[in-house]
């Protein structure tokens, strides 16, 4: 196929000046001049040599460069895909680790809060028991002090009542009656 293409190109190249001359459109292609024919022949030879140089040497090298570039791009794309997949895998693992750490820390926090609440309940109960005992003891002391004070007030109340009645009435009142009145008042509260 290459040879056929070359022969067709050479034939077309050879016929072009003759056709132009026949039509009278290109006077510079005057083939009666011996230099014009030689120039056309050398031009055809140079074109054929240039074609073979390009076809055998330059174009395969250019094709090789293009193929190498295509392979390198494909390799780079595959490397990028692998790196992206690894990065996505690492992100998933990181998110999973963060979620596990969050759940673990929330569990530890809940456990610490529950332990603190339990200690606070125990301390509150112990403090309430101690305060209840102190309150009961203080109430007993107050009750005892009140009874003692009330007991100490009875003789004073008898003496004061006797003195007041003696001054008001001018006569001494019987101590039994004063005792009854003081006892009645002390039982009323």
Relevant terms:
ATP synthesis; 189 residues; hydrolase activity; ATP_synthase_B_chain; CF(0); 3 helices; mainly alpha; 0% strand
Describe, in plain words, how this protein is organized in 3D.
The protein has 189 residues and is mainly alpha-helical. It contains 3 helices and no strands. The chain has helices at 2-23, 34-169, 175-188. The longest helix has 136 residues, at 34-169. The N and C termini lie far apart (139 Å). This is ATP synthase subunit b. Belongs to the ATPase B chain family. Keywords: ATP synthesis, Cell inner membrane, Cell membrane, CF(0), Hydrogen ion transport, Hydrolase, Ion transport, Membrane, Transmembrane, Transmembrane helix, Transport. The chain crosses the membrane at residues 38-59.
Major β-sheet profile? none
Uncertain residue ranges: none
Structural class: mainly alpha
Binned, the helix content reads over 70%
Shape: rod-shaped
Q: Any idea what the radius of gyration is?
A: 65 Å
Round the mean pLDDT to the nearest integer and report it: 84
Q: What's the N-to-C terminus distance?
A: 139 Å
Question: Quick one: how many beta strands?
Answer: 0
SSE run: HHH
Supply the number of helical segments: 3
Q: Which percent band covers the strand fraction?
A: under 5%
Question: Secondary-structure map with pairings?
Answer:
Elements: H1 2-23, H2 34-169, H3 175-188
GO cellular component, one term: plasma membrane
Organism: Acidiphilium multivorum (strain DSM 11245 / JCM 8867 / NBRC 100883 / AIU 301)
Protein name: ATP synthase subunit b
